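Page 47, continued from p. 46.
Same chain as before, 379 aa.
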Amino acid sequence: MENVRPGPIGFSKKKARKVLDKHNIDVLIASTPVNVFYTTGMPTLHVAPNPILYVLYNQFPTMSMVRRDGQECAFTWIVYQSTDKWTWVEDITGTISPQQTMQEVCNKIEEWGMSDKTIGLESLMPRYQCDYIRERFPGATIVDGDRAFLDMRLTKTEEEIKRIKKSTQIAEKAIMNVIDASKQGITDNELLQIARRTIVDEGAEGWDHLTMGIGTSDPEAPGMGYTVKTGEINRIDIGAVYKGYISDISREFVVGEPPEGAKEHMDLMIKVQEYLEENIKPGVNAAQLNKDVKKFAKSLKRRGMVFVTVHSIGLECEEAHIFSPMRTLDIEFEEGMVLDLEVWKSFKDFHLVGIEDCYRVTNSGVERLSSLDKNIYIR
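Result:
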């Protein structure tokens, strides 16, 4: 039986040509595992069925290159014999050391006639790789390729959206299993075990993050033995990874009666999130919407700051902050983007309490990929 190579998941030669023309890049080099996966499908992610290419990246780096016309090539550990099971790229060179990898990368740049052209590199490329290319091609123009990769990845294919949606369903199942198991005295370690077991049992490769705030504990550092107490707000924030693609969902829950004012607090957060739902459409400028949503939030409650974040999601949880308290991109929303809409505000002693869900941008607005009730869950 003839072996049939898999097709691209999100990568498109047509899109690559358009993006590289826009940024005037003749050859774009992928060096980080996530961009190598995007451009080749090779199992370079930390949650691959066997993440050996990720684990051995320091000794046997896997890299890829995209030419302005969309032509691709890749370089990987020569011992890895299953490239045709994973990637649509046929031009693959096996290497046995970082030095040989860089020699072969530069040989291919020469073969393609790009020695004195514009070469795009990732800002997170290891220094030895960047230095090798600069020294080998002093006549080339070296530019930052990060925005080119982002422009390719921001809008998702139907297959990518399908994977993110499945990842979202798995994360929500884990959240509900944690909430259903919660009771006075149960520890964060026990709840983390439930979340991990659910994620794997539901078919995901693993998790991107398991954020869990039990009462006033630090939600970014769970697993310290904190116990659930009656009347305290608890936060669970999960990102599952399904076939490489990530979700990002959070919910609050309370065992017993919630603190006074908690419901009103969450109602405010939901209203701000719904404002985003109603106003994100293709063609809407993100920077302007950021200003508008701040005004709307302030009109609801003048005291205290409401933190609003809209970030793109895909192969990375926070692929790019479209806008947040720290950063804003002056871009327009496009059909096919997948976004996480987060709204937070401090509440008494419980740090930030709020809501976040995943959405896809359609031709007329947004479609919510999440399905959980938005209110605080009461156990």
